[in-house]
Amino acid sequence: MRGPASVIAPFLAASQLAVNVLSPQSLLAAFGVLGVGVAMFAETGLLIGFFLPGDSLLFTAGLLCTGSGQHGVKLSLAPLLVAAAMGALAGAQCGYLLGRKAGGALLARSRSARLREGAQRAEELLERYGHAKAIVLARFVPVVRTVLNPMAGALGVPVRTFTVWQVAGGLVWSLGLTLGGYALGSSIPDVDRYLLPMVAVVVAVSLIPLAAELYRSHRAAKAKEARA
Q: The whole model's pTM is what?
């Protein structure tokens, strides 16, 4: 006859396997470096991954490479950088190819208001700033970085142009945020006590390039109107 411990054990194991996909700490504790690569691929290459916490995941993973946190998770920096970059680059290229084959049908069938709004913003970025600048800027905008890749494919952005600029933007985004977390974790003891406010700051800072570009475009438009 099975004892109480043998009956309860499977339920305890199941609870330990439960993962909150919206929590960087939960994802990293469950899947480690491999989870970072898979999450980057899903967020940038598959429309179903638009909700994943890309910015905060990269930053938190870099921080946990220092071993200064209290969550019992320790990652290795070199494999993490490789996984983050490969996931981000391969995901974007996959999203682009899906867009070329399926056109706008994938986005048109989506019931998510956030996804449709992101698609509209992605198309506006491509039209306003041109292919190169829009592809790089989109990396720093949640949801937009998910939908711009298939939008670029559907709108016929040349594959060479897309590949060059998605690689440039993807490396700056994935490696920059990861190394930023690592640098901060190396310089401040027990830095994970302040993780939530720091993640908010990271997300805000990541939007600076887009905000600066919008400001420059607005000033240029006003100057053009004044000369007219």
A: 0.71
